[in-house]
Amino acid sequence: MSRYRPLLLGATGLALFVLIYLSLAVAPEAAFFEAPLTQRIFYYHVPAATAAYVAFGITFLGSLYVLWNEDKQGVEPRLAEADRWAAAAAEVGTLFSVVALVTGLLWARVEFVFNYNAFQDPKVISLVALIVAYLGYFALRRGVSEPTKRRRLSAVFGIAAVIGVPLTYFTSRVSVHPEFLRDGQDVSGGMLGIMFYGMFAFALLTVTLVDLRRGQLALADRIDALEESS
Amino acid sequence: MIVLEGVTKRYGRAAALRDVSLQVPAGSITLLAGENGAGKSTLLRLASTLEAPSAGTVHVAGHDTRREGVEARAMLQYVGHNPGLYDGLTAEENLRFFAGFHLEESALREAVPAALRAVGLSDRADSPVGGFSRGMRQRLALARALIPDARVLLLDEPFTGLDAPSQAQLTGLLREWRRPDRALLLTTHDLEAGLALADRAIVLRKGRVAHESPAAEVTAARLRELLGGAP
Amino acid sequence: MTPAWVRLALKDLRLEWRSRELMNTLLVLSLALITVGELSFHDLDESTIVAAGLLWLSFAFTSSLGLARSFTAEHDRGTLETLLLLPVPRGALFFGKVAATSLLLLLLQAMNLALIVLLFGIPLSLATALALAPVLLLATLGVASAGVLLGAVAAQTKGREVMGPVLLFPVLLPALIAGVHATIEILNGAPLHHVGTQLALLFGYDLAFLAVAWLLFEYAVEP
């Protein structure tokens, strides 16, 4: 991964630059929205939420890998690596979840003004659930000092939480009156296109950030190892 | 009955056991000696299936502790530092609960009182364990271990905290337990008591096997030397 | 021979019956919650909504604490190891705990419901009570499964009992949401089939977590 890092950074930078340009200069004016200019935050909000879920997915896959291969012999370095991916992705995912939540709430406040009750929006509820799950993940990691045990327990929680968050989305969607699904309904083709591109750009950003963070964690682990052996 | 092959056990970066290979044959009583931190308790825990080796294999009564944990546990009994009894249950209830996973109800009716008698706790059968002293709990834990027809008995420091008469009683109990198809592995700091009971002695030093021989060929003094470090 | 998980569950129930330690703590907690709730929301018109909210709020807190406590107790006493030494598959330990804690939690919910009905003066017909039963049952089972798993995880951390609710919260949210909405409908007089979707979701939740928690349990409980 590190070999491709310069390429990854460059590609991400370019992709984001293009996104900014598209969202500000190219995107059609959203005439039917109350606040057309603020609407453009949408091109970052949805991608940020997507990024959060992508990161979550990485944590999930890392966790699965750890548990699946735990009792095999001689795979210790790979397990440690998978654990770092999971942990790095959790950090990046929390960041994007908060960004998604804040941008979403800001936009809703401007757009819907008095009609919006955030606590009844299934997407808000599931984002909050996601953030709480991540915080739990970090609390858990801080609470276990032995690396093998920390890795295993984080993996267990990582998998359990992954089941919980989509279930939260579905339960709240059914139970709550879904009035707030406008994102997909009133938008024109051009806007959707830019949104999808935004999702791609942010997915790229996620992978880059997770990789960077994972690299930092790997360095930290190596320093620990050197310290201990001296 | 207990076979370790190339066993290494790591906690984080520290290795408690390094490439240990040894056998405890059926019909024997083996003493595992070593300083604190030498790896004795770890070895016992690996044999008990409570933990799995980082490398190598552990077989108990022919079953791999990692892959056939349930089968292995059906054949062994482990008594560690912590008696692990339920304070809210009486001595008898504790024994019935745990032994009930190994024996049928009908067998328990006789086996439980017999076990209590063997360790001298018959008069406390109906007392909640919460009120027991440490020594009494140890005895009860031992009674629990002796009820099922275990092939392998793993005892971690069974003599600790026992006075001379109790030690003698325990030694007698263990000798009685011994049979050609059973193996006993115990650790103790009391090397004299251990050698009196055992017919084989193994010394662990810093996670490796430093010595292995019939008990008759070593003295407690010699063992202490071997533990210490100077080759 | 009685199935292993049954013996394990009975052991937990018997221990709890003798000391009533857990139930007392949880009962006091839920009483406090409900009383404060009643005092705070006294003047609101939508008593069914408040009642449902308090019932499930209490459910959330008591189950998180109760489930975490169940494991830290075993851990502390050293009995967790002796349980792990039993010649039974880890799944038996899992189901035993789920069965015992579900029963205790259900008992707690019943008491809470009775109290809430009394305090809020909500008419509770037999039909309503019967309609609420499956909702509570399904929610409890699912939460107990996830809770036994995460309680085992929490018991191994430094935070211990406090960690339990933290870990459990995102995972019990679906049960909470479905439960509250179904309860509101039922307390307002809706028949059971009106909340069919909620029940289906709870059922799906149960299936998912029973399966997942059962599979992950041995990893959580390994020393």
Q: Can you walk me through this structure?
A:
The complex is a heterotrimer of chains A (230), B (231) and C (223). Helices cover 80% and strands 0% of the residues of chain A. Chain A is an all-alpha fold. Chain A has one domain. Chain A is globular. The relative contact order of chain A is 0.17. Mean pLDDT of chain A is 82; it is low at 177-185. Chain B is α/β, with parallel strands linked by helices. Chain B has eight helices and ten strands. Chain B has helices at 40-47, 69-75, 91-99, 105-118, 134-146, 164-177, 191-197, 220-228; strands spanning 2-11, 14-24, 29-34, 55-60, 63-64, 76-79, 152-156, 183-187, 200-205, 208-214. Chain B has a six-stranded mixed β-sheet with strand order 6-7-8-3-9-10, sandwiched between helices. In chain B, strands 2-1-4-5 form a four-stranded antiparallel β-sheet, covered by helices on one side. In chain B, a hairpin with a 2-residue loop joins strand 1 and strand 2 (14-24). In chain B, helix 3 (91-99) packs parallel to helix 5. Chain C has 223 residues and is an all-alpha fold. Chain C has one domain. Helix content of chain C is 83%, strand content 0%. Chain C has eight helices and no strands. The longest helix of chain C is centred in the first third of the chain and has 31 residues, at 47-77. Chains in contact: A-B, A-C, B-C. At the B-C interface, helix 2 of B face helix 1 and helix 4 of C.
